Amino acid sequence: ILLLLRNPKDIATSFYHFSNCMSPLPSYETWDDFFIAFMTKKMPWGCYFEYLSKWNKYADDENVMTITYEELKENPVLGVKNIAAFLGVSLTEKELQSVVERSSFQSMKKNSQKTHGSFGNVLFRKGGVSDWKNLFSEDQNEKMDKAFEERIEGTKLGTKLKYEAYCKA
């Protein structure tokens, strides 16, 4: 099992934009409305913090590899090498480079119409890290920090998320 995680502030930001582009999902008049729903467990797929808590008990299982979106952005070559090793796949240097290039956000966004049809425009928006800084108010930032500290901070997955590096203003 490959468990891909992303920091909760960017998850909220990304899901806000995703929700407002997908007609079957609830849309939100404002970021503030969305943030309240996100923090009060009123999301269509449940609470992110509960999701992390449930997966945390499997973090050390030998058949589970946890990797973060941020890790893959920082060092895609190492990320692909680690995933390939976990899956027992050996790659030549040329294959490794091909996987890294073809799995980059820019490449996937460029090919999204071909691979996902009109849904590609919804799935591939920016692909960055720390876009949350464009939406979160100071109060929302503090509330998210508090929720993280209370629910996830001391856990294996909480540590893996490097919250201090990616979620502190």
TrEMBL record:
SUPFAM superfamilies with a match to the protein in the record: P-loop containing nucleoside triphosphate hydrolases
Pfam families: Sulfotransfer_1 (PF00685)
Coiled coil (residue ranges): none
Bilayer-spanning residue ranges: none
Record flagged with keyword Transferase: yes
Broad class of enzyme this protein falls into: transferase
Key words, A-Z: Transferase
Taxonomic superkingdom: Eukaryota
Residue ranges constituting the Sulfotransferase domain according to the UniProt record: 1-155
EC number: 2.8.2.-
An example molecular function term from Gene Ontology annotations: sulfotransferase activity
Keyword Transferase found: yes
PANTHER family from the UniProt entry: SULFOTRANSFERASE SULT
Family per similarity comment: Belongs to the sulfotransferase 1 family.
Protein name: Sulfotransferase
Species in which this protein is naturally found: Balaeniceps rex
Gene encoding the protein: Sult6b1_2
